[in-house]
Amino acid sequence: MIQRFLLFLILGLSQFIYAQSNDLARFFEDDAVLAKKVDSIYGLLTEAEIVGQMMMPAVGRHGQSKEAIVKFIETNKIGGVLLLNGEKHEFQRFVHELDSIGVQSNVLPFLYSADAEPSLIRYKIKNTSNVANANELKSSEEVKKTAMVISNDLKDIGINYNFAPVIDQGNENSAITNRSFGYNKDSIWVWSNAFIKTSQGMGIIATAKHFPGHGLVVGDTHKKLVFIDGILKEVENYKPVIDQGVLSIMVGHIAVKNNPKYGTFGMPATCSRKIVNDLLKVELGFRGLVVTDAMNMGGVRDIENAAIKAVEAGCDILLMPVNLEQVVEDIQTKMKQDQVFKERVEDAVKKIIRVKICLGLI
C-alpha cells in the first residue's frame, strides 16, 4: 500500500511539474536528475508492471477489443497501446477512456502509437487531414509541412508515438510501395530527418523503419519471413537519422543469409542479437527505443519463444504480442532464471520510463 501511495505521489507531483514540459531532446542527454527520477519510478514497480511496460497491444478494427485492453490495464500488464484502424474521434474517446482507467488502476501513463505515415494515415485513422503519399513529396519543406499536419492530428487524438517515417529504399516491394521516399539515398535520409525533427519538435516520438531494410528484399513480412541475400544495402540509411537524434527504430521480421558477419540463421532480425544489439546498438550507436514490428505477422509468429528471443536480441517494446499474458509470464520466469536477461529487461523499461518523462507524461 505504501508503494502504491508513493507511486501516486510521484505521478501526481511529476504531472504537476512537467505538465507544460515536453522536451524529447532530453532523452539522450547525460542528465543525472532525469536518471535519478527514472530509477526512483522503476524501483516502485512490481515485476509484472516492469514487464508490462514492454507490451504494446493494439486496439481498433484490426486490434483487440477495448474490453481486452482494459483487462490488460487493470492487471498492470501494458505500457502502451497501438491505435489500429479506426476513426479520429473514436480514437480520441479511446485515449480519454483508457487514460481514466489507467489512473484508477494506478499504472504509469501510456504511450499511444499509430502507423501515421504520409501514405497510410488516411487508411489507419479516418477523418484526419489529407496529405500526399511519401513517394509524391518533392522537397524537405514539403516533408516538414506534411509531418506538421500529421503531428497536429496525432496531438488532437492524444497519440504521442508515430511509427514513421519509412526509410526503406525504393517502392517496388509489395509491403512498401508508395510508403518510401524513393530510391535516392540522399533524399531518403535528408527527408527522413526533416520528418523526424519536425515530429519530435512537436512532442511526437518518430520511428525510422524497417531495420535493417525492407525496400530491396522480395516478399512481404506480413505474410512470411523474407530474406536479405548478401550485403545489407539499406543499413547506411540509418546512420544519419541516428546521428540526428531519432528516438525510435522499428526492426522488421527480415532474415539475413549469405552474409558471414550478419547472417541470422533463419531467424528474423527482430530475434537476432547480431542485428539488434551488435549492429544497431553497438556499431551504429543507437541508444533510443527499439520496437518490434507486429509480433503476429507471418515473418515471426511461427518462431518458438519469439518474444523472449526479441528481448534477448535487444528489442525494448513488443508490438502486438501474441498471447500477451503468457508472454508477460514467460518473461518474468526468464528474469528469475537469468540475471543477464533481467538486466536487459531493466535497460529496456528504464528507457520507456525515461521517454515518458521527456514527453511530459510523468
Describe this structure in words.
- By secondary structure, this protein is an alpha/beta fold.
- It has one domain (2-358): TIM Barrel.
- It is 44% helix and 11% strand.
- It contains 13 helices and 13 strands.
- The chain has helices at 2-18, 32-42, 47-52, 66-74, 88-104, 121-124, 140-157, 185-201, 238-243, 273-283, 306-313, 324-337, 339-358, and strands at residues 55-56, 58-59, 80-83, 86-87, 111-114, 125-126, 161-162, 207-211, 226-229, 248-251, 254-257, 289-292, 318-319.
- Strands 2-3-5-7 form a 4-stranded parallel beta sheet, with no helix packed on it.
- Helix 4 (66-74) links the parallel strand 2 (58-59) and strand 3.
- The radius of gyration is 19 Å and the shape is globular.
- Mean pLDDT is 92; it is low at 12-20.
**Helix count, DSSP H or I runs of 4 or more residues:** 13
Biggest sheet strand order reads 2-3-5-7
| Largest sheet, strands/sense/barrel | 4 strands, parallel
Report low-confidence residues grouped into runs of 5 or more.
12-20
The CATH class assignment is Alpha Beta
What is the CATH architecture assignment?
A: Alpha-Beta Barrel
Question: Which structural class best describes the helix and strand composition?
Answer: alpha/beta
Shape: globular
How many whole angstroms does the radius of gyration measure? 19 Å
CATH topology: TIM Barrel
Order of helices and strands: HHHEEHEEHEHEHEHEEHEEHEHEHH
Tell me the span between the first and last alpha carbons: 20 Å
